[in-house]
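Dear colleagues,

As part of the handover before I leave the project, I'm documenting each prediction I ran so the next person doesn't have to rerun anything. This entry is a single chain, and its sequence is reproduced below.
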Amino acid sequence: KHFTTICTVGDDCLIRLGGDTVRDMNGNYVYFTDTVAVGNFKVDESRPYLVSFSLDMTQEILSLTFSEAVNHPDKNKRSDGLDPTQISLQAGLYEEDWMSGDVYEGLARRYTLTGGTVTGPSVDPGHPPVLNIQLNV
Protein backbone atom coordinates (compact mmCIF):
# COMPACT_ATOMS: atom_id res chain seq x y z
CA LYS A 1 0.00 0.00 0.00
CA HIS A 2 2.92 2.34 0.50
CA PHE A 3 3.84 2.30 -3.19
CA THR A 4 1.14 3.41 -5.61
CA THR A 5 3.07 2.61 -8.80
CA ILE A 6 3.34 -1.18 -8.45
CA CYS A 7 0.93 -3.98 -7.56
CA THR A 8 -2.21 -1.87 -7.73
CA VAL A 9 -3.85 -4.37 -10.10
CA GLY A 10 -2.92 -7.91 -11.06
CA ASP A 11 -1.46 -6.88 -14.43
CA ASP A 12 1.30 -4.77 -12.88
CA CYS A 13 2.30 -7.16 -10.10
CA LEU A 14 5.30 -9.40 -10.77
CA ILE A 15 7.90 -10.97 -8.51
CA ARG A 16 11.55 -11.80 -9.05
CA LEU A 17 13.64 -13.96 -6.73
CA GLY A 18 17.40 -13.67 -6.58
CA GLY A 19 19.52 -16.79 -6.20
CA ASP A 20 20.21 -16.11 -2.50
CA THR A 21 16.59 -15.53 -1.50
CA VAL A 22 15.85 -18.82 0.27
CA ARG A 23 17.24 -22.34 0.76
CA ASP A 24 15.54 -25.71 0.80
CA MET A 25 15.81 -28.20 3.66
CA ASN A 26 19.18 -29.50 2.33
CA GLY A 27 20.70 -26.01 2.11
CA ASN A 28 20.29 -25.59 -1.66
CA TYR A 29 19.50 -22.08 -2.78
CA VAL A 30 16.34 -21.47 -4.80
CA TYR A 31 16.76 -21.46 -8.56
CA PHE A 32 17.20 -17.90 -9.85
CA THR A 33 14.04 -16.77 -11.64
CA ASP A 34 13.06 -14.08 -14.05
CA THR A 35 9.86 -12.27 -13.19
CA VAL A 36 6.75 -14.33 -12.47
CA ALA A 37 3.23 -12.92 -12.72
CA VAL A 38 1.04 -12.94 -9.65
CA GLY A 39 -1.20 -16.01 -9.45
CA ASN A 40 -3.84 -14.57 -7.15
CA PHE A 41 -4.27 -10.83 -6.67
CA LYS A 42 -6.80 -9.28 -4.31
CA VAL A 43 -7.48 -5.55 -4.68
CA ASP A 44 -7.29 -3.47 -1.49
CA GLU A 45 -10.86 -3.02 -0.27
CA SER A 46 -10.27 -2.21 3.39
CA ARG A 47 -10.85 1.33 4.59
CA PRO A 48 -8.37 2.83 7.05
CA TYR A 49 -9.64 4.04 10.40
CA LEU A 50 -8.25 6.23 13.14
CA VAL A 51 -6.69 4.01 15.82
CA SER A 52 -5.61 6.77 18.20
CA PHE A 53 -4.41 10.34 18.38
CA SER A 54 -2.14 12.42 20.56
CA LEU A 55 -2.05 16.17 21.06
CA ASP A 56 1.09 18.01 22.14
CA MET A 57 -0.08 21.46 23.22
CA THR A 58 3.50 22.71 23.77
CA GLN A 59 4.75 21.78 20.29
CA GLU A 60 1.27 22.30 18.79
CA ILE A 61 1.30 18.94 17.00
CA LEU A 62 -1.68 16.67 16.49
CA SER A 63 -0.60 13.09 15.66
CA LEU A 64 -3.08 10.71 14.05
CA THR A 65 -2.39 6.96 14.05
CA PHE A 66 -4.24 5.01 11.37
CA SER A 67 -4.95 1.30 10.94
CA GLU A 68 -3.16 1.14 7.57
CA ALA A 69 -1.25 3.24 5.07
CA VAL A 70 -2.90 6.55 4.16
CA ASN A 71 -2.10 9.24 1.60
CA HIS A 72 -0.32 12.46 2.38
CA PRO A 73 -1.32 15.55 0.41
CA ASP A 74 1.67 16.21 -1.83
CA LYS A 75 2.93 19.48 -3.23
CA ASN A 76 0.51 19.11 -6.17
CA LYS A 77 -2.42 19.46 -3.74
CA ARG A 78 -3.92 16.07 -4.57
CA SER A 79 -7.41 15.75 -3.20
CA ASP A 80 -6.93 12.20 -1.91
CA GLY A 81 -4.71 13.12 1.04
CA LEU A 82 -5.53 14.27 4.55
CA ASP A 83 -7.44 17.56 4.81
CA PRO A 84 -6.92 19.13 8.26
CA THR A 85 -10.01 21.33 7.85
CA GLN A 86 -12.14 18.16 8.13
CA ILE A 87 -10.90 17.53 11.69
CA SER A 88 -12.67 18.81 14.80
CA LEU A 89 -11.54 18.70 18.40
CA GLN A 90 -14.37 18.75 20.88
CA ALA A 91 -15.19 18.51 24.55
CA GLY A 92 -16.70 15.28 25.91
CA LEU A 93 -19.49 13.63 23.96
CA TYR A 94 -22.06 14.72 26.54
CA GLU A 95 -21.96 17.67 28.92
CA GLU A 96 -24.09 18.78 31.82
CA ASP A 97 -25.19 22.40 32.10
CA TRP A 98 -24.06 23.34 35.61
CA MET A 99 -26.90 25.86 35.97
CA SER A 100 -29.87 23.74 34.88
CA GLY A 101 -28.46 20.23 35.23
CA ASP A 102 -29.58 19.47 31.66
CA VAL A 103 -27.42 17.05 29.69
CA TYR A 104 -26.74 17.81 26.04
CA GLU A 105 -24.37 16.75 23.30
CA GLY A 106 -20.98 18.41 23.71
CA LEU A 107 -20.84 19.70 20.15
CA ALA A 108 -21.27 23.25 21.44
CA ARG A 109 -17.64 23.18 22.55
CA ARG A 110 -16.01 22.08 19.32
CA TYR A 111 -13.16 23.56 17.30
CA THR A 112 -12.68 22.68 13.65
CA LEU A 113 -9.11 23.06 12.41
CA THR A 114 -8.63 25.86 9.89
CA GLY A 115 -5.46 24.37 8.40
CA GLY A 116 -2.07 23.03 9.39
CA THR A 117 1.00 21.48 7.84
CA VAL A 118 0.77 17.71 7.42
CA THR A 119 3.94 15.62 7.63
CA GLY A 120 4.26 11.90 7.26
CA PRO A 121 3.09 9.34 7.15
CA SER A 122 5.90 8.10 9.33
CA VAL A 123 5.97 4.34 9.15
CA ASP A 124 7.70 2.37 11.87
CA PRO A 125 7.88 -1.30 10.79
CA GLY A 126 5.38 -3.30 12.78
CA HIS A 127 3.41 -0.22 13.78
CA PRO A 128 0.55 1.66 12.12
CA PRO A 129 1.34 4.80 10.07
CA VAL A 130 1.21 8.22 11.77
CA LEU A 131 0.38 11.60 10.22
CA ASN A 132 1.43 14.72 12.12
CA ILE A 133 -0.28 18.08 11.77
CA GLN A 134 1.59 21.20 12.84
CA LEU A 135 -1.20 23.37 14.23
CA ASN A 136 0.50 26.75 14.55
CA VAL A 137 0.24 27.68 10.87
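The radius of gyration is 23 Å. The chain has a mean pLDDT of 75.

All the best with the project,
I.
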